[in-house]
Amino acid sequence: MERLWAPWRMTYIDGMGDDGSHKGGCFLCAARDAAEDRKALVFLRRPDAFAVLNRFPYNNGHTLIVPAAHKGSLTALSDAEMLALMTLTRDVMELFSRLMRPDGFNVGFNFGRAAGAGLPEHLHLHIVPRWNGDTNYMPVLADTKVIPQALEDLFDRLRAAVENPAGDPQH
User: Which residues are catalytic?
Assistant: First the structure.
C-alpha cells in the first residue's frame, strides 16, 4: 500500500477540542493581532477587514476574507463592515487574476458547523482560485490534494503584488 504523508494536518487536528472548536481560541483574531504578517500569512489589511492565506488550503491560493471584528453572522456586521468585506473580496480576486491567472473562483461562506464552518464564531469568506483541469485522480483515488506552491512563496508573491500593483506579476 502506498502512503502519502501530510504531517502539517496534525497542527490542525491537534488544535481541535472535543466539541470541534479550536482549543487555542480564535485563530482569525490571532492572525489579525499578529506582529508578523508573513508568519500569520496575512497578506492584505484594511481597517475593517483583512485577507489571510488558509493554512489548510483546498487549492493553491485558498484565502479567507475576514472582518476585523470578531462577529459570527452577516446580521452582526455594520453596513461599513459588510462593504469592507466585499470590497476586499473583489480586490483579492483581481489580485489573483493578475498574479495567478486562474480560470475561475469558488467564493462563499459556511454558516454553522453543519455547513462546514470550522470557526462559526468569526465570520469569514473563502476565495478558492480554480484552474481548468485542477481536479485530477489524486482526490478521487487517494483522497489527497496536491498543492503546487508553498504558502510562504505565495505570500511573498502576493505581498509584492500588493505593494507594487503596476509591477510584473510573474517576478
Answer: 124
